[in-house]
Amino acid sequence: MQHTSTQDTLVGLFVASGIVGLLFLALQVSNLSSFIKEDTYTVTARFENSGGLKVKSAVSAAGVKIGQVSAINFDPTTYESVVEMHINAKYTTIPDDTSASIFTAGLLGEQYVNLVPGGSEDYLKNGSAIEITQSAIILEKVIGQFLFKSAEEKAETKK
Question: Domain range holding 3?
Answer without folding.
Answer: 1-30
